[in-house]
Amino acid sequence: MPLLSRRHVMAGGASVVGLSGLSACATRPLFSPDLDADVRSIPVIRARTDRIDRITVCLRPFRAAGPRLDVVQVGHKTVVHNYGHGGSGWSLSWGSAKLAVERALPVSRNIGVIGCGAIGLTTAIVAQQAGAQVTIYTEALPPFVRSSRASGSWTPSSRIARADAVTPEFAARWESMARYSFSCYQSLQGLPGNPVEWDTFYGLHSREPSAPHADPIGYARLDERIRDIEPQGNLIRVDDSRLPYSEVHKKPNLIFNVASYSDYLMRQFLELGGKIKILTLHHPSELTDLPEPVFINCTGYGARALWNDNSIIPVRGQIAWLIPQPEALCSMSFGNVYVVSRRDGIVVQWLGDDMGFGYDNTDETPDLAEARRSVSVINGLYRRMGYSL
Ligand SMILES: Cc1cc2nc3c(=O)[nH]c(=O)nc-3n(C[C@H](O)[C@H](O)[C@H](O)COP(=O)(O)OP(=O)(O)OC[C@H]3O[C@@H](n4cnc5c(N)ncnc54)[C@H](O)[C@@H]3O)c2cc1C
User: Fold this and answer.
1) Does the record bear Glycosyltransferase in its keywords (predicted)?
2) Which of 237, 246, 284, 304 could bridge across to 312 with cysteines, CB 3.0–4.6 Å?
3) CB 203 near ligand 1, within 6 Å
């Protein structure tokens, strides 16, 4: 079977590989010399469907009331919950970990963490930094956890709660988690492999009239509370009507190269003396057989089955990954598509016609048509800018 037409189907993701997209990129941009230099410098992402190298699907663990952080007893064991971070798990992880560890430490400095995704890994490290001995118990390790299938950008209030369920206490807790995480991320820059870095986001406002992005779920919008720490960027008007966008919102964007970031977190945990045991818990009562007196439960969407918690609603999200282009690191949105060109792959995500897209959908099967549609939107964008990809 010839390599160029081979299709690979993998557990949790399908991929289509075609090397014909590697030919030189002919460019003939339309930009006139008097156009703002910021707009002329938008990196060229080679959005071609034959450059899709895999498709991944993930379920955001959404709870209307926000993440669960309460403390419960299971027999003689104490369990601190730390799950249900919706579309904000990576962003809020350090702040959420801090709150959970503060609740566990008074019980014991011998802590079991259940789960090894964004929340479990950061929780385990924060506990170690506070002097605890930590063992992670988990069914799967990165990259085989849902966190490894995230877009990887700073989105602390994405699908984090429903507006009508947000209490003043939750809003204040969310703010403290977001501020603490943001400060942690500033100290994780400049590391080998660039696990965390700033890129430039281009919000391209299409010239074609479109209905405002409706939100039938009524997700909470909390970003205003941390406006002072987030760069706001600037809005650039584009008068050249040949270009498909009339305005560009340009701003710095904090991103996570999830492959190297997970690797960094795993190494940190092991270097600090952490232990990992692979196991699947089928019922909370199984915790009573483990040696630690206190556990922090970081099972994400898995908590729905394990803790019989039907307050977790799955919000499906799919990414079509394009072959990385280290020369074109940036992020952008155009139409209903969000792109993050990371070092470990280019995320192309169809956001749907409204904010209800993916809500209460448990289907983790890759949708090739959705992947192609999203990449084609970005392909059309560059073609209308005058590029031949
Ligand atoms: C398409 C998409 C894009 C996203 N983009 C972003 C983004 O840009 N920024 C952001 O901040 N967030 C983003 N998110 C959200 C983010 O991915 C989640 O909030 C995050 O992954 C939740 O992490 P977690 O550690 O709680 O869960 P998981 O990553 O699912 O980890 C759960 C862990 O628990 C283990 N586990 C589960 N059940 C059991 C069991 N019964 N026994 C033993 N172990 C168990 C699993 O093996 C795993 O190790 C995105 C989500 C999606 C779907």
Assistant:
1) no
2) 304
3) no
Closest C-alpha residue for ligand 1 atom 1:
317
Q: In ligand 1, which atom is closest to the CA atom of 281?
A: 42
pLDDT for 271-329, tens place per residue? 999 999 999 999 999 999 999 999 999 999 999 999 999 999 999 999 999 999 999 99
- Rounded distance between C-alpha atoms, residue 170 and residue 150, angstroms: 24
Q: How many domains does the chain have?
A: 1
Position 18 in a domain: no
CA proximity to 287, closest of 108, 114, 81: 114
Residues 6+ apart with CB under 8 A from 71: 78, 79, 80, 81, 103
Do the domain assignments include residue 110? yes
Give the SS3 label for residue 150: coil
The per-residue pLDDT for 28 is 59
Give the range of the structural domain holding residue 307, as residue numbers without chain letter: 62-197+259-314
Which residues, given as ranges, of the chain have pLDDT below 50? 1-24, 26
Of 85, 70, 98, 93, the closest CA to residue 161 belongs to 85
Q: Could you tell me how many residues make up the chain?
A: 389
CB of 55 sitting under 6 A from ligand 1: no
114 lines ligand 1 (CB under 6 A): yes
Indicate whether 235 belongs to any domain: no
Q: How far is the CA of 12 from the centre of ligand 1 (A)?
A: 14
pLDDT at 13: 39
CB-based contact 112:132 (threshold 8 Å): no
Cβ(336) – ligand 1 distance below 6 Å: no
Q: What is the CATH number of the domain that holds 83?
A: 3.40.50.720
Is residue 298 within 8 Å of residue 120, measured between CB atoms?
yes
Asked whether 123 lines ligand 1 (CB < 6 A), one says no
In a domain, residue 270? The reply is: yes
Q: 284 in ligand 1 pocket by Cβ < 6 Å? A: no
The closest residue, in CA terms, to atom 3 on ligand 1 is 150
- From 62, 90, 177, 287, mutation site for ligand 1 pocket: most ligand atoms within 8 A of C-beta: 90
Question: What is the Cα 242 distance to its own chain's centre?
Answer: 34
pLDDT of res. 18: 33
| pLDDT given for residue 176 in this prediction | 98
Q: Whose CA is nearest to atom 18 of ligand 1?
A: 89
